[in-house]
Amino acid sequence: MSSTEIMGIFIISSFSLAYLAELAAGRITNAKRPLRDALFSLSAMLSQPILTGVVVAFVASNLMVLALPTYANRFAELPFLPCFLGLFFINEMLHYWVHRAAHEYRWLWKLHRTHHSGMDMNAGLMFRYNLFWPLIVPQTWMGSVAMYLGQTDAFLLAAMITYGVNVLTHVSFRWDLWLRKKIPGLKPLWWLIERSITLPDTHQAHHAYGKGAHPNGNYAVTLFIFDVLFGTAKIPRQRQQNFGLPISPRLHWAEELLWPIIKKPLLPKAAAQTSKK
User: Fold this and answer.
1) pTM score, whole prediction
2) How far, CA to CA in Å, does 204 sit from each of 2, 117, 144, 174, 227?
3) Closest to 170 in 3D by CA, of 14, 39, 26
4) How far apart are CA 244 and CA 75, in angstroms?
């Protein structure tokens, strides 16, 4: 079995297990807008491998051939561990800055906003994004570059770790708070962990508003140390009550999926309240 097949199995199985667990617990069906969220996630899951993924792979591979024609598989013989660590660190750092820029620059925010307009935390939120967002995500481009240079396995392992953390931080089950309560003696260790690795506490604060929220911070996917180092960290150590955006009910579905191709004004408050019921 190839490393690509292993990654595919890992992605499908980890997401499916998390989603089915939340479905069985009623977290999906009792969400505020389950059908809309499911359709958004399904659209992104289908479009990425057959549309944006193909575009990025084609563009990136051709750019590499033009810029570095003699570098195909040049790094294939390098040791696995340093290549994996380097790719993982670079991807995390790039994602931090692109994600941060997506909250600081309006045109990038309009691409990223769809991921934040979901009004409930669950595994499906991972794939709730504008269909053009994968064109911006560094990991999409890094994968093509790493494969061209001959470090496919190192990149795939880094991507699997990032994906696994994404699953654990988006699910509605607050396993981190449960562990804190069950193992209070590990408080010094928790102090270190929560400043090094992204946990549900910090990432769900990023998706929330109101008490315990931090939507303009906590940008790291896995290495929370970037938020600590660059002053964007907030560790609330509590459940967040309000997820999404205050304007979430007023956003038009077509703009959420297809901005900038489709631009729609906010729905009137009365219409938004009706559609929410």
Assistant:
1) 0.93
2) 34, 13, 30, 10, 15
3) 14
4) 43
Structural contact between residues 102 and 8, judged by C-beta atoms closer than 8 angstroms: no
Segments of the chain with pLDDT less than 70: 270-277
Cβ contact 95:115 at 8 Å: no
- Residue type at position 105: Y
Cα(234)–Cα(217) distance, integer angstroms: 7
**Measured distance CA(30)–CA(227) in Å, rounded:** 33
Taking the CA atoms of residue 35, residue 38, residue 43 and residue 45 in that order, the dihedral angle to the nearest 10 degrees is -170
Angstrom distance (rounded) from CA 50 to CA 34: 25
User: What is the C-alpha separation between 188 and 67, in angstroms, rounded?
Assistant: 49
DSSP string, 163-213: HHHHHHHHSS--HHHHHHHH-GGGHHHHHHHHHHB--HHHHHHHTEESTT-
Query: E strands, the chain, where?
Result: 208-209, 242-243
CA angle 70, 75, 80 (to 5 degrees): 170
101-140 pLDDT per residue, tens: 999 999 999 999 999 999 999 999 999 999 999 999 999 8
Asked whether 14 and 115 are in contact (CB, 8 A), the reply is no
CA atoms of 153 and 57, how far apart (whole Å):
17
- Domain boundary assignment for the chain: 3-276
Percent helix, percent strand, percent coil in the chain, to nearest 5: 65, 0, 30
